[in-house]
Amino acid sequence: MERESQLPLRNKVEAVTLPALSCVALCGGTHGNELSGIYLVQETLKNKRKGEAMEAVTVVTVISNPRAVQQRVRYTETDLNRCFTYAMLSAPVSERTPYEIIRSQELNSLLGPKGSGQAVDLICDLHNTTANMGLCLITYADSDWICLHICKHLQREMATIPVRYIHYDIPLSEAFSLESVGKHGFAMEIGPQPHGVIRSNIFTAMQEAVHLMLDWVRLFNSGTQFDEGSVDVYTMVKNIDYPRDPYTHNITAAVHPELQDRDFCLLYPGDPIFLSFSGEILRYKGKEPLYPFFINECAYYEKGVALLLARKSKVKIPAIQCSRA
Amino acid sequence: MERESQLPLRNKVEAVTLPALSCVALCGGTHGNELSGIYLVQETLKNKRKGEAMEAVTVVTVISNPRAVQQRVRYTETDLNRCFTYAMLSAPVSERTPYEIIRSQELNSLLGPKGSGQAVDLICDLHNTTANMGLCLITYADSDWICLHICKHLQREMATIPVRYIHYDIPLSEAFSLESVGKHGFAMEIGPQPHGVIRSNIFTAMQEAVHLMLDWVRLFNSGTQFDEGSVDVYTMVKNIDYPRDPYTHNITAAVHPELQDRDFCLLYPGDPIFLSFSGEILRYKGKEPLYPFFINECAYYEKGVALLLARKSKVKIPAIQCSRA
Question: The whole model's pTM is what?
Fold first, then answer.
């Protein structure tokens, strides 16, 4: 049409090209009492299709901490998901080395080595939380276009559960969790679910998210271009511990009912955060409104964390396309 | 007034008289990862009033399983709350006897002996469940007027949470849990709360219920007559296990989303109870509609119990009064 041809030509957006994701690791049981990922990995193993050799992507399934899974505990000697720093992955092993450190080095051999060209292309490590966080992808990067595009895909496609992107601003050498071993990687965290319990709705959401992620990877590998856009990223700023007795170190308050289950609802200075066992309200003393998450997560009592706080920013992501397509 | 005097005289109901409840034991931490009772007992200890010697009732506070509390686990070697049968309480002790059996015998010395005149008058053992059960008093008797009147009192006074009475029809000799050591006793079970987590609303409800129970005991001891009435009693009939793989014994399904959190909602033959990990619906095959409870309780996976089923009946309770008033 004449009028249109008179308009200035729009530059076609140049897509960033990235290598194919030939190998994806799907890991469950990094914490042995977070059941959704364990049963999902077992179920995926059962259903591995015969035609898999023809697939555009190889999916490796891993039960990360089989001893902890067997005992239905988070870990047996030390938290496996704090063992993937460069220092711990290269620590010498003796008879007294905790099982989980040995296991982290095994997993690094299997899926890494971390930071190398031999590492798997993408690690998806499946987790549950007692916090009301919906589905979160947790990463060490706010500029990993693969992870951000997968997040956008899940946000668009998942109807039953909110999907968010969390960023821990930690260099790769210090990055302590399993997903840091892959070329790309994220923890997929879903809650609320008590540890040691499986809730059908949470299992189904995780199953759907994993299917959607693998669909996305297949589309990407087959040459589909994904449009530019933006994703809200929650970058972790700090954490807050429970009030504790200075002598016994026992907690003296619970998360305030007005904060409990309100993950990702902006917390303002002066808002209640704890209600002490004797009935006293304790308030947020920070100067900046921030987004709370991992509110009252079971496993973080021992780590001295009642909740984490994040700043939200909108990250622009470029159009991407597989370089070999 | 003349008209009134012409009405036939109503027989004043004769109250059943029962001995005073001089000593009440408040126990927490029978399971070391059920946190409400642990913090409530610790808080009660802190606040023991100076004028207590003047009180109409002595309250003994007990942390039942201190080792498990320390480790934040249900138990260390065997479930303490299955160790109070006559057989286990009189079992010989050797170096290889599990800690919890030794501890049950200590608690029997402290609060019992079970079945004897020296036992404490009332044991209230504080528990949490991951099931959506509200507040339940769990007992071995459907004709313990003390427990039933306390239940009625809580049902009348507690605004925020439903209160129900559960009856396990087991003779005293076989009764396996701590409350069976007292002359009267019940487990006070509150949920939903993940094990290893404390939720403020659940803590507050338990605190209120304990205060109301002690208020009732004081009124009873001071001679107040409590009117006759009735209480709905849920008597345990049977339990249902998760579907399991015959070889690995791993569960192959989760509680169906339509049953999850519907404790005490009548389950009819044909209703869905499980959704398998591959998407198949499994239905209730019983012939009689029954009331499910302890649906998807974390600690019962290892016991082979996905839910319990109860029959409901209305139990008439007489007016009661303290015999020494």
Answer: 0.94
